[in-house]
Structure to design on (603 residues):
């Protein structure tokens, strides 16, 4: 027979659970204030109800009461340390508050209890990505999708990393899967737009940004994307307006300020500069990513005003913070440059000469970023028989059995047989042909393809290659001035940047010795800006094309240009960037030393 005390205890427990259940329903109905009342009643009856503490934390977090929310998550874990939801919720709150290391610890603890919890894997991926550990993040997003294939957020987040690693086509697959699962997923529409932008499909990108804004017109990221698309299409005034809409919605998003800075020149009385300076006064309150973007934006603004010391101070600070959050193995990268020379010996190049696909469709423009590759592509793309595909990763992704995320990859020996070379060429040609089926020539302007010049020639012996060269100090300073969208891990330290440049330059010197003289054309940026017609005629002739006068009016060619040079190539040729480094000579000593050149005082 049950004692009266026991019966009262059961009744109290029943009442507590009833309040908890009602609170959960109210929270699902987006009534967090009402839910809090009933969670509190449940806890008044049963103070050690771990799930009620956890769910009360969720309701408080929805209302922005983060300190109280954290306290209840911690109470839940003190009562029930293995409560997966509380670890995940506290981890997410810590990540929001800028404590990704602590967040990682909670997500990892959750996975010790529930190793197949897809949400915990996805959350851990988010935290690792915030810590600058994107490859580890990718592994957890992939694991989340293996557990739960219809996990729309994991598809979206994995797509973001693939996009960041320069694989927009692979990213698109995941964004499209996210949208098949959740058609009203505004962020996935926005991100799909960004992937399409990377493929120079600016008009298609605009459609997805508009879909995102139709779902949520306050999505600042989509307004920012519209600005990027308009900028790529040369619509600069409209782009500025879109960036300003994004900034009004999210005034502390420094990447939006950076996009605006890259689209216009600043004047001393510019209110946009004043807004950035105000934001910089509270720099420590910004996340690392926003601090980095703000430093680069201010560096650009002060450079426009010829305030070179202030400009460089911000560039140095932004690069230093970015470098601390970027994984880069310099020794491995330089070793792989040497390995490429050792693999593509003169004997190998001679033995395999002519065994690849005879297509003359591809035109490769290679070199360092910021060396004039976009200008060369724009000249070629102004020719009616040429399509400019932009910076595409199709060649790298056509090579089998490589880690496409590595900064510099090796070439598997299995690729170096005649059948394998023809298969590689066929895969690559299929990919680029899909973008421009009727073009006589297609320009692949991926600068980093300089590492594959030997393999390109063996697979596509009739493809023409153009090497863009620019003064090494100007090139490196320009790289140091840019916060790249994709991965350039060598670019954020002056010494590493200079040594990378020397490694690249030595490799290009080597390719010149093992290629037939009619395959590789070197075009110096300084020669191009001082003799546009003469150099443009060299470029067009090298590609076995008849001359077209419209190649001299490249700035009027209506096409999408999605690189840091998109503003410059919409203007007639100018030489203002030649010798730019001299204004910063005193600050560039680590770079000059790494490049092996002597410093000169600024004039």
């Amino acid at each position: 027979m049950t004692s009266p005390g026991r019966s009262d205890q059961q009744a109290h427990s029943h009442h507590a659970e009833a309040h908890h259940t009602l609170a959960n329903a109210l929270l699902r109905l987006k009534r967090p204030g009402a839910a809090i009342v009933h969670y509190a009643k449940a806890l008044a009856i049963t103070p050690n109800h771990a799930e009620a503490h956890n769910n009360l934390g969720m309701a408080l977090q929805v209302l922005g009461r983060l300190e109280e929310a954290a306290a209840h998550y911690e109470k839940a874990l003190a009562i029930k340390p293995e409560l997966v939801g509380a670890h995940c919720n506290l981890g997410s709150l810590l990540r929001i508050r800028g404590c990704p290391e602590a967040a990682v610890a909670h997500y990892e603890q959750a996975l010790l209890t529930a190793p197949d919890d897809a949400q915990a894997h996805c959350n851990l991926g988010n935290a690792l990505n915030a810590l600058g550990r994107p490859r580890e993040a990718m592994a957890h997003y992939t694991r989340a999708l293996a557990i739960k294939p219809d996990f729309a957020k994991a598809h979206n987040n994995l797509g973001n990393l693939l996009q960041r690693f320069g694989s927009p086509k692979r990213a698109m697959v995941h964004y499209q899967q996210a949208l098949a699962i959740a058609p009203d997923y505004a962020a996935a529409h926005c991100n799909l737009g960004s992937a399409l932008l990377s493929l120079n499909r600016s008009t298609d990108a605009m459609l997805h940004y508009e879909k995102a804004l139709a779902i949520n017109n306050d999505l600042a990221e989509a307004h920012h994307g519209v600005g990027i698309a308009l900028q790529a299409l040369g619509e600069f005034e409209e782009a500025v307006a879109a960036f300003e809409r994004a900034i009004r919605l999210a005034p502390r998003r420094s990447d939006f300020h950076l996009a605006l800075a890259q689209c216009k020149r600043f004047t001393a009385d510019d209110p946009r500069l004043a807004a950035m300076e105000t934001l910089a006064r509270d720099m420590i309150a910004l996340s690392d990513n926003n601090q980095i973007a703000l430093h680069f934006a201010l560096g650009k603004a002060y450079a426009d005003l010829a305030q070179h010391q202030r400009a460089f101070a911000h560039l140095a600070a932004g690069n230093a913070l970015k470098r601390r959050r970027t994984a880069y193995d310099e020794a491995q990268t330089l070793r792989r440059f040497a390995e490429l020379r050792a693999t593509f010996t003169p004997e190998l190049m001679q033995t395999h000469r002519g065994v690849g696909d005879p297509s003359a469709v591809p035109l490769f423009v290679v070199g360092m970023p910021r060396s004039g590759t976009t200008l060369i592509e724009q000249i070629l793309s102004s020719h009616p028989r040429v399509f400019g595909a932009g910076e595409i990763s199709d060649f790298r992704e056509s090579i089998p059995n490589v880690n496409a995320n590595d900064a510099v990859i090796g070439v598997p020996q299995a690729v170096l047989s005649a059948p394998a070379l023809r298969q590689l060429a066929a895969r690559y040609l299929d990919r680029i042909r899909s973008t421009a089926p009727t073009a006589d020539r297609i320009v692949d302007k991926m600068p980093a393809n300089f590492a594959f010049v030997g393999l390109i020639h063996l697979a596509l012996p009739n493809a023409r290659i153009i090497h863009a060269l620019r003064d090494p100090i100007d090139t490196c300073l320009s790289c140091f001035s840019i916060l790249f969208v994709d991965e350039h891990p060598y670019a954020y330290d002056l010494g590493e940047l200079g040594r990378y440049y020397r490694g690249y330059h030595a490799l290009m010197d080597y390719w010149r010795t093992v290629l037939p003289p009619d395959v590789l054309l070197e075009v110096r940026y300084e020669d191009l800006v001082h003799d546009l017609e003469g150099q443009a005629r060299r470029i067009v002739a090298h590609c076995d094309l008849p001359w077209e006068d419209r190649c001299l009016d490249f700035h009027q060619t209506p096409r999408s240009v999605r690189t840091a040079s998109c503003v410059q190539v919409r203007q007639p040729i100018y030489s203002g960037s030649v010798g730019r480094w001299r204004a910063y000579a005193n600050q560039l000593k680590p770079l000059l030393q790494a490049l092996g050149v002597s410093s000169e005082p600024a004039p």
